[in-house]
Fold each of these.
Amino acid sequence: MSTQALINSVIRPEIRALTAYKVADATGFIKLDAMENPYIWPDALKTEWLKRVRDAEINRYPDPEAKSLCQILKAYNRIPDTCDLILGNGSDEIIQLLLMALPAHAAVMAPEPSFVMYKQIAQCLGLNYQGLPLLADNFELDIEAILGAIKAQQPAIIFLAYPNNPTGNLFDSAAIERIITHSTGLVIIDEAYAPFTDFSFIERLTEYNNLLVMRTVSKLGLAGLRLGFIAGHPSIINELNKARLPYNINTLTQCSAEFALTHPEMFAEQTGTICTERARMFLQLSVLEGISPSPSAANFILFRTPHNRATDIFNALKEKNILIKNLSSQQSLLKDCLRVTIGKPEENNAFIKALKATLQAL
Ligand SMILES: *Cc1c(COP(=O)(O)O)cnc(C)c1O
């Protein structure tokens, strides 16, 4: 049998139709493409952390329920006592776990543009994914259209990133409430950018049994650990837990995250600086001729560039050693759009300087 015939017979067509999620090689670049926290830890803290790691029993399997880490995450994130948690190897794994639990061909919805993994994983699993186009002028939810789609298709899951990636805005909370109350399925509020905003649905978890709130430590400053969680009604969490692999959170992640999260002041200082820089970057972008930034409650800013020049600008920045994200080819709403992650002040300055020079040379 030819290799292609072999592939055709064993790999599902929906997977063959996908392209793998690509991550650009950032070696040597000022890296402002992936919403990472740019700060590392002071040496004293690293030493203390390494002591914990040294004593970790990596010959043993990890705690399958990560009980002590769950307690710390619950306190750190002020999750109501009556809710339970599931941890994932990044929130990506939780999205996969949620979607794996659904009936075959169930409808899954998410706004577009939004986080690409909702669609990617849903399609990979052969689910009926439906994008809900955001309004073009302000990237808000088109609430009447969404309520209509919910009524017609009864989605098993709706994902809402709050703040949304890649647009950076917080959707209208009254519209989100209407989606929760009109939905006969689960509504997942993805709060990956919670460290950069005061708005959250965590407190409202106790009001709705179909609401789940998902978070990650990635954007906070621990992207390398791969740790996310979802909180919700204990009976729903109990069902989802059956689809989880038993040792999905490794020992080094458990002990490192437990250690890190007992230093909330350090993260508060770092995310505070990032938010201050976000405001400064927004102003600097908005005064540039031809650039219009979108208001952001996250650690990145989406901005529109002059007509049909986004890719040229992206490449010119790359030549100046600055890596951001080019979204201009993804969808019509993102035409001419680039996204920059907020870095250290000196990195942000280098970006603004390079962007100015690039625009002048256009
Ligand atoms: C980055 C991101 C995630 C993924 O987080 P991990 O925990 O690193 O897998 C999830 N949702 C949104 C909206 C994101 O932007």
Amino acid sequence: MAKPPLSPDELARRYGPHLNETPAGGWQQESRHPAERLVKTHCCFCGQQCGLQLKVRENRVTGFEPWEEFPFNKGMLCPKGVKRYLQNEHPDRLLDPLMRTEQGFRAAAWDEALDFTARRLREIQEKYGKDAVAVYGGASLTTEKTYLLGKFARVALGTRHIDYNGRLCMVSAGTAYKLAFNVDRSLIPWSEIPKAQVLFAIGANIGDCAPITTDYVWRCRDNGGRLIVADPRMTPISRNADLFLPLRPGTDLALLMGLLHVVIRDGLENREFIQSHTTGFEEVAESVRPYDPRRAAEETGVAPESIEKAARWIARAERCVMLHARGLEHQSKGVENVLALINLALATGHVGKEGSGCTMITGQGNGQGGREHGQKCDQLPGQRSLTDPAAREHVARVWGIAPEELPGPGLTAQEIMNAIHAGEIKALLSICFNPVVSLPDSNFTRAALERIEFLGIIDFFLSETAHYADVVLAGSLQEEEEGVTASVEGRVIHIRKAVDPPGNARQDSWIVGELARRLGKAQYFPFQSTREIFDELREASRGGIADYYGITYEKIDRQLGVFWPCPSPEHPGTPRLIENGRSFFPDGKCRFNVTQWRPSGDPVDEQFPVYLTTGRVVSQYLSGTQTRRIGGLVAIYPEPRVEIHPRLAEAHGIRDGDWVTVTTRRGEITLQALVVRTIRPDTVFIPYHWPDGRSANRLTHRTLDPRSKIPEYKVSACRIRKAERPPEWAVQKGPPQPRAQAPGAPAPRGGTG
Ligand SMILES: Nc1nc2c(c(=O)[nH]1)N[C@H]1C(S)=C(S)[C@@H](COP(=O)(O)OP(=O)(O)OC[C@H]3O[C@@H](n4cnc5c(=O)[nH]c(N)nc54)[C@H](O)[C@@H]3O)O[C@H]1N2
Ligand SMILES: Nc1nc2c(c(=O)[nH]1)N[C@H]1C(S)=C(S)[C@@H](COP(=O)(O)OP(=O)(O)OC[C@H]3O[C@@H](n4cnc5c(=O)[nH]c(N)nc54)[C@H](O)[C@@H]3O)O[C@H]1N2
Ligand code: SF4
Ligand SMILES: [Mo]
């Protein structure tokens, strides 16, 4: 049954003028009203989870104030944090459940929408089997919601298939850290960063994507620390780097193996640390032997002298912190890349001591907490493995079921979409995920959703994916339900409820609980409050790696956050992991892992000679559902542009502002050129926060890392040409927008302005 999405016109007619597109200038509302109360909580956007205070008046969020005491950001916020409060009152908020009719959506009563959803899920499971239904979760949800969702999939639906949008984000890092340390969390609290003598940032655009971390980087430099940055683009922080390594997209592994080669060749490895705290060094040393600086330079395009220098700086530093993000991880060898960085950290002994450590910069708001308690396809609460008999027994006991009733591991996020496309999975319940914009190869995603038999969405805005839904259940913003998240540091923090959801929208966990009840599983979901969900989560995680047993909301408030593991009420929490080199493996050793070079899944050739890489800009967030609706943010970077080096531009007769068609083996889109000197001349960059004709994911490919199953967003092959005329979307929108702010502009230093 083909099910075309509703057209924008139809949607606008049915559901107001703001849908799917930001009105000119966007939604702006200033906080003129004095506050009745201030609610100390956190920014809902990125993994920094900055503390802030929401101004509340008459059950509405009307503005914000800084929260100076919260230690991570001390009142500083980036542009998104300053504008986040505009969502609660936004005219696009979904205020009722929506049900699809022949003509479009109509508002429905909750009983009708929930009954229908539960009935369709049950019918499909009866007809095709339990695993014909899949669940998508998200890492912007509070930890309680993600826990509830894992239990819902396995107990209420009994399906194997639940996975989450962190599969597009944190899983290469997580897989590698588990292989090396048996734990998936930053090894250090951010207070270690300013103490480092050398900071190595690889594939992390800290200025735009972790803006508050910039302040830690500058403090490190103020203390005399040296900064090394590896990125195909000169991002804001690299302007102040002591050494910049402009590597070719997808070649990090060669760079990192080259660095380790130099360390070992020059006898700079930390023998004592290697001997006392690690296993597997010899094999890794052997594997990097061929990667002398000349070969590493050939593969990466980075000068051999720079590789030599970086290796010496890192190895000779007493304290070194290595920071990485998706540039390193969004590759079909993302896990190998992270392992190679960890190998370098272990070989130089920069793990488990003050001012040293390697760490991923977590992406989504609850990117950390969202990957700990069971919404991953192979995971049970507490970062336990779904295939570990002891873990199954423990969690089954807490849930009041027999261990045999727990389904086994299911498919990952992209694999679920592949199975929908293949007609094997017939229904999807998706919360906090916008796959039409965020999954690679979006023509494929759209084709899959056109054939799905039932799609249910829980969201507070009508996302592009919701256009394909049979039912849209109007859910809640972060500040509309109490809970916890875990920040980039591994600090568990308290999300306080500021207001109720508006109109007939409902709290996410109420919606999930009501569906469970309608599926006949009410007894397993007796929760009257988030606190009761959290208390069960504490039990379920008890004794696991991510042990929350000793964490309570009150303790979080007293300590301004608690770092897990925290196994007992008296335990203060664990800011630094791998203390004195002790890993989470039973033998306490850290593991070296041999890494092997593989080419990208979409190699450049004569037909597609240019590298395409994708990522972010400071003012937009993820698939843009939230930030494309906020006026002050849209103004900063109104439309996606394709970054091109002047030399590449000139070769194609392209000038700044010209329309450029970018074509890959999947499709093409036409955007305006942003001609900048801050990118490699063999590479173009497109931010991915927009849908349809502006969507970078029309171009990307579905190759996955074989272990983490992360898509290779950072490496595609493309060709470019000057377009004769503007694309359809631009014609409809009117004259081109003024030039966006060039990247490489000074990085924000925070501040609430
Ligand atoms: N403003 C803003 N901030 C965000 C987000 C957002 O959407 N907007 N999202 C949050 C989330 S979920 C995430 S995951 C993080 C992402 O944070 P980052 O990973 O820092 O951001 P990206 O832009 O995805 O990519 C980072 C850098 O990788 C570089 N890169 C591209 N290819 C390669 C390569 O092959 N090797 C290397 N070494 N680098 C490469 C890009 O040029 C880019 O500068 O940001 C979080 N913060
Ligand atoms: N080309 C390319 N593609 C990428 C990336 C890239 O670098 N390049 N990055 C990838 C990465 S790192 C990520 S993390 C993904 C993100 O991709 P997605 O997770 O699909 O993006 P979001 O915009 O977070 O979509 C979340 C949806 O959930 C809703 N939502 C947010 N919070 C809540 C909540 O509390 N409750 C409910 N009910 N709904 C909520 C939002 O309104 C939005 O519609 O994109 C990936 N896609
Ligand atoms: S850095 Fe910006 S987006 Fe991230 S949590 Fe802080 S204020 Fe929010
Ligand atoms: Mo992410």
